[in-house]
Amino acid sequence: MRADDAELELFRREVSCAALLERWPAGWRLDRRESTRRALKYRRGEGEIVIINHDEHGWWDPLSSAKGDVFDLVRHLDPSLNFRQVCKELRRLINVAPTFPAALRPSLADVPDRPVAERWKRRPRLRQGSPAWSYLSEQRCIPASILAAAAGADIVRDGSFRSAWFAHHRGDGTVSHVEIRGPDYRGSLRGGTKTLFRFGRAGKGGRLAVTEAPIDALSLAAIDGRRADTLYVATGGGIGPGTLSALRDAIGVIAAVPGACLVAATDANQAGDRYADRLSEIAAEAGISVERLRPIGATDWNDILQGRTE
Question: Model pTM?
């Protein structure tokens, strides 16, 4: 093995991607609320995100296709650096530990007591007047017709403390992940794999509208008049392997329909625009057209919906 190869292996084994981000100039900060022990979410400014995984030895950018090891991360952060300069940056971080909170270190709480699908089945189904229904209709202003359709499709259930549970499904219909939103809480069940939250169906029109959050998917459906030609989906923020596979499968279903279109209905901010660019790349790979649908005068589609009721 050459000396350079041996040093690269040392970097990949002994340098933490999290430690690199924490010590990189320009203000990367851990998003404690949306991080887990296995997936540390770091943010810089409004529109940049890096997820650290593989026990801190891997990373990926949920708003692009970029990913790799710690060497790739340095090149991602500063593409102007050459090989020797990257090595110089990494040498100072060998065996340096990150400073992320102890709350994110391994604990019994990180092990789900039951599979996500089983926990989903134990929650009450959404119904008119239930706590989650009241939260979504009164605080989020989602119309009763949309909530009734979501209840009929069994994609939203009642959680604790008036929260709503939103199910992501695999292609076979099984629940793979659950997002939770409530008056005072935002999170998800541990142990799941993000795919897509789905509402409606593309039908013969072949229109796939992609939002970031399930509440935005339901809100856009309400604003749209719940178009019969549209499948409204939400990724839950970022495009990981499970979400990318689900998106490609959903695109595959509509790709042969004349006029098939992916609508990038992400948030009206820098991160949302980057997200829309990534969705455009995915649509282009599949050979279908793409439309950028950006909320006007608000950050997301639920803001728009709430503004209509004021």
Answer: 0.74
pLDDT in tens, 2-27: 557 778 888 988 899 999 999 998 78
**Number of structural domains in the chain:** 2
The 3-state secondary structure of the chain reads CCHHHHHHHHHHHHCCHHHHHHHCCCCCEECHHHCCCCCEEEEECCCEEEEEECCCCEEECCCCCCEECHHHHHHHHCCCCCHHHHHHHHHCCCCCCCCCCHHHCCCHHHCCCCCHHHHHHHCCECCCCCHHHHHHHHHCCCCHHHHHHHHHHCCEEECCCCCEEEEEECCCCCEEEEEEEECCEEEECCCCCCCEEEEECCHHHCEEEEECCHHHHHHHHHHHCCCCCEEEEECCCCCCHHHHHHHHHHHHHHCCCCCCEEEECCCCCHHHHHHHHHHHHHHHHHCCEEEECCCCCCCCHHHHHHHHCC
The residue segments making up the domain with residue 240 are 116-308
Span 197-206, pLDDT tens digits: 999 986 677 9
Do residues 79 and 18 both lie within one domain?
yes
Residue 303 and residue 231 share a domain: yes
